[in-house]
Amino acid sequence: MNRIIVGAHYGLKDWLAQRISAIVMATYSVFIGIALASGGAASYESWRALMSGSVTRFATFLFIVSVCYHAWIGVRDIWMDYVNSVAVRLTLHVLTILGLVGCAGWAVQILWRL
Amino acid sequence: MTTRTVNFKIYRYDPDQDAKPYLQDISVECDPTDKKLLDVLVKLKAKDDSLSFRRSCREGVCGSDAMNINGKNGLACLTDLSSFVEGKPIVLRPLPGLPVIRDLIVDMTQFFKQYHSIKPYLINNDPPPERERLQSPEDREELNGLYECILCACCTTACPSFWWNPDKFVGPAGLLNAYRFIADTRDQATSERLDDLEDPYRLFRCHTIMNCVDVCPKNLNPTKAIGKIKDMMVKRAV
Fold it and tell me: Which of A103, B116, B172, B224 has the most beta carbons within 10 angstroms of its beta carbon?
């Protein structure tokens, strides 16, 4: 028996989150680009002063969370499109989540060490 | 009256005879009175009656003669012969992404299965009024650009998401028709319809590639309809 089963009843939240995280990433990229170009990247000290400021730290943290969530939805969609075996797909989903959570933790650690 | 020769490369496949499909070079003389691609195809059929394609109304209403014309899906009966570069062969293939039955004829079962899955009929449990269920002109306006769909499958078979998941993704034609009933003020199953589409495969496989808009021979916009379904889901949720 090979019945096609659909109706997982999710998707809207992810679709919305992907759009919102894209806005966060785009806004952050513009502002950090301007900050770095206007003296932020002149020396290590100026870069460190910029990145360890509480506003930048708050924004960078939001950026990291947005990148990871955005990437999760995008990569998951690729697995859903191209990987037919449910077992392989589930494994890839889990590995993607673990990889992204690890990256996010690492990034946060770097950010707060500055 | 001068005749001119039109060259074709046509996808041919007869599962009873051919081991695999091939492109056949064939040309036909056409008269100045032949205006549309279908006119010439009918002439070709008279020349070689083994060539198979669907056709019926020959005026863009039935949607039978949808095919892949020079790489882009369209209706043969609405495609002007003058739109082709003279001398260059016209490449005709069956609609992509569906099983080929023979030559330019594809098996539309999967396409109609998805279409039927969205319950393409008015659901209203109130007793029918004596004459008809009325709508305000403004409410009726919302159905423009939706009800005109002729189910030719040009859009759905041009959609990569449908190529990858034809069994799970409803496809642009099905979703356009889903919104046609979601938008209908006389329909009482709006919430159930939205519930049915709230699914990572059925609706959210649409990645706004917009091939559907590019190929629709009736100039409809399935992407816009899909966007409106998502808008309604957001409105319902927040």
Answer: B172
Q: CA-to-CA distance for B8 and B50, rounded, in angstroms?
A: 15
Q: How many domains does chain A have?
A: 1
What is the Cα–Cα distance from B170 to B225, expressed in whole angstroms? 13
Residues of B in contact with A6 (CB under 8 A): 168, 199, 201-202
Q: What is the pLDDT of residues B89-123, one digit of tens each?
A: 999 999 999 999 999 999 999 999 999 999 999 99
Nearest by CB to A81, from B164, B199, B233: name it.
B164
ipTM of the complex: 0.87
Q: What is the CATH number of the domain that holds A67?
A: 1.20.1300.10
Chain A contact for B234 (CB, 8 A cutoff): yes
pTM beyond 0.90, yes or no:
yes
Give the list of residues 6+ apart from residue B26 with CB closer than 8 angstroms, or none. Answer: B7, B8, B10, B44, B47, B48
